[in-house]
Amino acid sequence: MDNSxxxxxxxxxxxxxxPLTPKMLFRLLADEPKExxxxxxxxxxxxxxxxxxxxxVEVAGGYQIVTRTELHxxxxxxxxxxxxxxxxxxxxxxxxxxxxxxxxxxxxxxEIRGVxxxxxxxxxxxxxxxxxxxxxxxxxxxxxxxTTKEFLIRFGLKDLGDLPKIEDMAEALGFDPPARLIEQTPxxxxxxxxxxxxxxxxxxxxxxxxx
Length: 211
What we know:
Blueprint: H1 3-15, H2 22-28, H3 34-49, E1 54-59, E2 62-67, H4 72-79, H5 89-101, H6 106-113, H7 118-126, E3 130-136, E4 143-147, H8 149-154, H9 166-173, H10 179-182, E5 190-191
Antiparallel strand pairs: 1-2, 3-4, 3-5
């Protein structure tokens, strides 16, 4: 295998602030045969499996080189993680409800959790962990919320199919799952956002049902 190509692919994945997709790698390395680039990716994955400090993971459709989970406490000491950067239990619980019931309205999230969630939704929108994906086809046409690519990256998930069982996720995050979160619900009938309603511009906006 071409060691120079391997070094380039590794450097690109390491330097990218977001998971680097195969499509982007193919574009950046357009002069190289795609099969060589794909083979290099697989070789790097195999190489990192035996490394004690770092690992190459596949998240949100791309690749990242990150520290191993068992070393996170040491990394946190380096950066002196601030408590303000951590999500509250309320935010984690709301995020779990959205992750497993998406797309879902603010009112429905509140009914499952039993509390008003407006402030928590604003926080999750600002952190880019959730987004507005449409409107529910009911009176008032309330916004529907779903998780984002940033959510997948933050929790190290390849896609939503990698979500653990609700009970396991709740236990890992440190809260008791609401009873209604475990109940199965039918999928929502979703309406698209209006042309003049840009999803990315609503990062601080929480739906209020029209009277």
